[in-house]
């Protein structure tokens, strides 16, 4: 972070100089314009004809040209001064950020055409997620990446609904939730109820004039009566205070603004789950992990080189450090073998025995005795080949 702050300081200096230069040039040009108009007015009032530039007129004209020239030179030289600060930013970047990462990255990572295609697709997908559709289209056109329309469609819909939610328009989201009601319920999602609840609250905030409509709308809660009984009771209870305004009642917490940001988060999470998409963009997750891992990896590499203990870390596709991006980025369940007390890997995967106990394949192989396996836990005797590999 210190490196970023350092570059930012240099950038601030450039920005400050730019602003100051803007003021200076505006002031000088205004002054110059005033001066030129003055000279012009003076010439016009003295009733001179064309080609009659003699004496005092001639000297005031040449003074005018001299002034213009001087002002422009002054502006040009202060503009030149900014160049120095701009180049300092470049130097600060070079000094603080090591662009040479080949020591920690496999050289042939992007050699395969297929991988380059994946990268381009991931970037395009990220842009779709962010709602930057035009940028994504341009990138596709320029890079020649062909994106299937079926990949684009869900993002278009997601963005349209999210945009509406941000403008506090619940209709598109409600429509979507009602269409996908069963699938949402299968995912244990409370999205539809929360949308109805928010719609009801927005009616409440309108005061007495919405009373009849709010009562009418309450029938939407009926399918959720058993699961959200308490919430519905609170909503109905608040109706009593409609006359004095919900904001003056014990129910004022219903009007909190966080309801709206929460509903956006819940909608994104549940809609992504339904569409089989990850909530976080794969590109931003990779980027964040890269930002965390690279400095550490480069330090490790440096230490290894300094101490001349090469061979400790030779495989560049192996990650010798842990990257923690928080709980929301835990994608895979991890299984540790209870026998070997080791995390399972692709070469030593978890195996389920027919009794239901799970151990790693290496442990299983070690436990085989004369072609039979005795479960170390229950202890059921079984055929080792009956064990099935488990995929998390
Ligand atoms: Zn067992």
TrEMBL record:
Residues 154-211 form the CTLH domain. It is found in: Cytoplasm. Residues 337-378 form the RING-Gid-type domain. Pfam families: CTLH, zf-RING_UBOX. It comes from the Eukaryota. The keyword Cytoplasm applies. PROSITE patterns: CTLH, LISH, ZF_RING_GID. A zinc finger (RING-Gid-type) spans 337-378. Keywords: Cytoplasm, Metal-binding, Zinc, Zinc-finger. One of its GO terms (cellular component) is GID complex. One of its GO terms (molecular function) is ubiquitin protein ligase activity. GO terms for biological process: proteasome-mediated ubiquitin-dependent protein catabolic process. Its main location: cytoplasm. PANTHER family: E3 UBIQUITIN-PROTEIN TRANSFERASE RMND5B, MACROPHAGE ERYTHROBLAST ATTACHER-RELATED. This is Required for meiotic nuclear division 5 homolog B. It comes from Erpetoichthys calabaricus (Rope fish).
